[in-house]
Amino acid sequence: MAAKTGRFEWPAKAVDWTNSVFLDRVRRGG
């Protein structure tokens, strides 16, 4: 990912990471 996005880059990654963890828990039945 390019650093051009600046302040928007981190929040987007944080959201993607949170969604990934949440979906992983749901798939495991947690």
Polypeptide structure, described:
- With 30 residues, the protein is mainly alpha-helical.
- Helices cover 67% and strands 0% of the residues.
- It is built from one helix and no strands.
- The chain is rod-shaped.
Summed up:
The protein is an all-alpha fold. The protein has one helix at 9-28. The longest helix is centred in the middle third of the chain and has 20 residues, at 9-28.
Percent helix: 55-70%
**Number of H- or I-type helical stretches:** 1
User: Radius of gyration, Cα only, in angstroms?
Assistant: 12 Å
Whole-number mean pLDDT: 81
Topology:
Blueprint: H1 9-28
State the main characteristics.
rod-shaped; 30 residues; 1 helix
